[in-house]
Design brief:
By secondary structure, the protein is mainly α. It has 17 helices and 2 strands. Helix 6 runs antiparallel to helix 14, helix 11 packs across helix 12 and helix 13 packs across helix 16.
């Protein structure tokens, strides 16, 4: 029996892609994520180019700096979570990001070389933090608004909004990189952040329509719908330590970031050896992002929903480790620019297209407090911790003269263990989802609920 046959809520109605009461909310969520990722991918090629220029030792320091900034930022965010309603929490976070870009725009007007270098370093760290933090807040809101069954149907479609934004951002940057200064480019993401907040506000107004499109109430959401418990960052960390499920998510995401960082270091070295001028490198990274996002969009619209509904979360989570197994094996014996490009496109395409919506489905079965506090700790500190740890390890090993071939070979058994963990994590999610099957609301027959439960056994 396939895993999908036992997925909670796998009724005929659940098999439909979008129910009437969900359509408006899906559109606003799609557009909000589009704005976030469009802004991020305007800046991303600039960060990637800097990564090729600063060298391995500098990359280690920048990854470490990103992690340390997360350590400071997460408690501040947790304090906001405990004090602000969801709609004002979102506004506070994204207004801050937009204002920060205006500060960078002002700082870039100075021609002093030392000032430019430090601005570039801080911008590298800021982009790393923004990319993780902004999407973490977005998916926290989505996990709060949608149930597990809705997430399996809808998160792939919504994630396609981010991919569309990434494609537009990559196209804009590839065309404007030689026409506009970096100082001018940073204003565009600030504008997109503010436009995205308008869609976020409209999404918030759809909360009631989202909760009962099929006449059911999710137990977790109905129990936690009033407020997020106070307690700050420590409460989220304690929950992670006490929960095998949350701890497994931490290990999974640590692996995602760790192996992506190894590939990132290989990218920096291979591109540095193959392409001389930095303008050509920026163009390559922009087109690499474009190819990645086109593949991602196809996966999100044509495959992710089918995989999550029919093959299950376990299968979806395991796909990325399998891609890395093939990629690292290929790079071990054929470390060329084209091997790197193919590996980067497929690993990122599967990561964005399938792994991201799958990992967000993982959080639909936890409490509302964990969706904001524990999830944010995981999405920021754990993710940046994976970057930092991998960056320190890879940088140190390269400094000792360990060749890329050896690093790729050593990575293979670790990736195999990651694949096993991914499969197990998906099965844990399924068991938790069964325990919180939607219960009938007033006017809905008990027979409907019993039929749905029996169909999942």
């Amino acid at each position: 029996m396939s895993e999908s046959s036992q997925q909670p809520g796998a009724s005929a109605e659940d098999a439909r892609r979008i129910l009437p009461g969900e359509l408006t909310a899906v559109v606003f969520a799609f557009l909000w994520l589009l704005c976030i990722l469009l802004g991020y991918f305007i800046l991303r090629p600039v960060r990637e180019t800097m990564g090729t220029l600063v060298g391995t030792s500098e990359l280690q320091q920048l990854f470490l700096a990103s992690f340390l900034v997360m350590i400071v930022a997460v408690p501040l965010y947790a304090a906001l979570v405990a004090r602000l309603p969801r709609r004002w929490l979102v506004r506070s976070v994204f207004h801050f990001f937009a204002a920060s870009l205006l500060v960078f725009w002002y700082a870039m007007r100075f021609e002093d070389e030392s000032m430019q270098v430090w601005t570039a370093r801080v911008l590298f760290v800021w982009i790393s933090v923004f990319g993780v933090f902004s999407t973490s807040v977005f998916w926290s809101v989505l996990a709060d608004l949608f149930s597990s069954a809705q997430g399996r149907r809808l998160f792939g479609i919504i994630a396609a909004g981010g991919t569309t934004g990434a494609i537009l951002g990559s196209l804009l940057t590839s065309q404007l990189a030689t026409e506009l200064s970096t100082r001018t480019l940073v204003l565009l993401p600030a504008l997109m952040i503010e436009i995205g907040l308008g869609f976020a506000w409209r999404l918030e107004k759809q909360a009631n329509a989202i909760r009962q499109p099929s006449g059911e109430v999710d137990q977790v959401r109905s129990q936690d719908a009033t407020a997020i418990a106070r307690g700050g960052l420590l409460a989220g960390i304690v929950h992670v330590v006490k929960s095998p499920y949350l701890a497994s998510i931490c290990v999974f995401l640590f692996c995602v970031q760790g192996f992506a960082t190894l590939l990132y270091f290989e990218q920096a070295e291979i591109v540095d050896a193959a392409i001389v001028d930095k303008e050509s490198r920026t163009g390559l990274f922009a087109y690499l992002d474009l190819g990645t996002q086109l593949l991602t969009l196809f996966i999100q619209l044509a495959l992710s929903g089918i995989i999550l509904r029919r093959l299950g979360v376990s299968f979806a989570l395991t796909l990325l480790p399998l891609i890395y197994l093939v990629g690292f094996a290929a790079l071990a014996f054929h470390p060329t620019l084209w091997t790197l490009v193919v590996t980067m496109i497929f690993s990122r395409g599967v990561g964005y297209g399938i792994t991201v919506p799958s990992r967000e489905v993982l959080f639909t079965v936890v409490s509302r407090e964990d969706k904001y506090k524990s999830k944010n700790f995981i999405d920021t500190v754990v993710l940046r911790g994976g970057d930092t740890a991998a960056g320190q390890i890879v940088g140190s090993l390269r400094g000792l003269g360990v060749p890329l071939f050896q690093l790729n070979v050593w990575a293979l058994p670790l990736v195999a263990l990651w694949a096993a963990l991914s499969w197990s994590l998906g099965r844990m999610q399924r068991r938790l989802a069964v325990r919180i099957l939607p219960v009938p609301v007033h006017g809905q027959s008990e027979r409907h609920h019993e039929d749905a439960s029996q169909g999942n056994r």
